[in-house]
Amino acid sequence: MRYLALYRPESGIEGGTPEPEHMAAMGRLIEEMMKAGSLLGTEPLTPRAQCAQVRLSDGQFTVSEVDGRMGGFAFLQANSKEEAIELSKSFLKVAGDGVTEIRQILEFGPPPA
After folding, report:
1. What CATH number is associated with residue 74?
2. With contact defined as beta carbons under 8 Å apart, do 95 and 7 qualify?
3. Is the pLDDT assigned to residue 53 strictly greater than 80?
4. Residues 86, 36: contact at Cβ < 8 Å?
5. How distant is the alpha carbon of residue 26 from its chain centre?
6. pLDDT single digits (tens) 54-71
7. 6: domain range?
8. Which residues of 46-60 are buried (b: 16+ CB within 10 A; e: fewer)?
9. What is the pLDDT of residues 23-42, one digit of tens each?
């Protein structure tokens, strides 16, 4: 099963450059998880000041600033939600204080013949 993990750091500069030691530790974790097949992809996100939220309500569009901090995302491959949670815990140990929201990606089979 595939999962999307969204990371929200508790503090720190959004979109900032981490310390070299932190980058090295994160690089090792990413490499380890990719080799194991549990990490399909991951990327950091720009600060919320550079983002927009687009809403459609009653046929009208509104564009506003994003109100929540978001550090990045990862696509995970796991056999269960519990395994995805454990992968997320491994990430947070390196990333530091924050929250990951884990959502299973719905996978639909081919249409019936």
Report:
1. 3.30.70.1060
2. yes
3. yes
4. no
5. 14
6. 999 999 999 998 877 888
7. 2-104
8. eebeeeeeeeeeeee
9. 899 999 999 999 999 999 99
